[in-house]
């Protein structure tokens, strides 16, 4: 019994036209199909060629009469075609069609049973069946291409190095206030007790200015047979400050060079044979000092300050008309206390 036209290949053909053919036309270069045709099947091959070209494919035509034609695989590879087709009669009106799918390397053959010889449309029916089979093969090829898994990108053996992050500038302790007790000593006098208070301004990371005041609490004392001299000394200093170490260190050092003004109040208590007297002197007292700071918290320090100064003009202490000593050449002071600072912001 002769085979009738199947609806299944027809449905597959519709899917191919809607799915695969537009995709083929979207490619930058048209795809090609190689057709190897036996001369006796030439009318059928021409009809089949029209159907294949309607799919947007280019047909590369070869006649099977040539001796020793290459295999379908070689022909598809040489022509850079998606497939190669061989059409040959089998006798009795039947036709053998073989398709080589270059994407998978598979070869599939169909036997197309011809219609009745009395039927004038036999060739048209065989051509239609052949195109349906070709479309079914192309649909399968398109489905495989769609289902191909996307190759995962291999992990980069050398992951990108994170850009180096430059730390932002730290807040600087621009203003600081210090206060603490101080001892002041000069030759021949017993040390006096004062209170040191000061304000430091650091507009730059390592340089700034300072203002300080030494206020007397207990006087310096000089004893001689003629009597005693009490000296109350007050000092006002304006200096330049230099950070000798990193300001963010737990222990830091500051160097200070200052111009100072001193007010000396001398009160003499004479023995009964002599007269008591009181004098006041103003002196210039340039000084050099060093301050060690130990951080207790981010903006709190304990400080130890030591400085040396000299006095101009020369201050001579006289008792009973004779020169007993001179004051302030040199004068040494030491102080300890608490310093609190306030951040001014980053540069």
Can you characterise this structure?
Helices cover about 20% and strands about 50% of the residues. Helix 1 packs across helix 4 (about 120-145) and helix 2 packs across helix 4 (about 120-145). The longest helix has 26 residues, at about 120-145. It contains four helices and 17 strands. Strand 15 (about 315-320) and strand 16 (about 320-325) form a beta hairpin. Residues about 1-30 and about 165-170 have low confidence and may be disordered. The chain has helices at about 5-25, 40-55, 70-80, 120-145; strands at about 30-35, 60-65, 85-90, 95-100, 105-110, 170-185, 190-200, 205-220, 220-225, 225-245, 250-270, 280-285, 285-295, 300-310, 315-320, 320-325, 330-345. It is α+β, with helices and mostly antiparallel strands. The protein has two domains: about 5-140, Rossmann fold; about 175-345, Porin (Beta Barrel). An eight-stranded antiparallel barrel has the order 6-7-8-10-11-13-14-17. Strands 2-1-3-4-5 form a five-stranded mixed sheet, with helices on both faces. A two-stranded antiparallel sheet has the order 15-16.
Task: Describe this structure in a few short sentences.
The chain has 347 residues and is α+β, with helices and mostly antiparallel strands. The protein has four helices and 17 strands. The longest helix is centred in the middle third of the chain and has 26 residues, at 122-147.
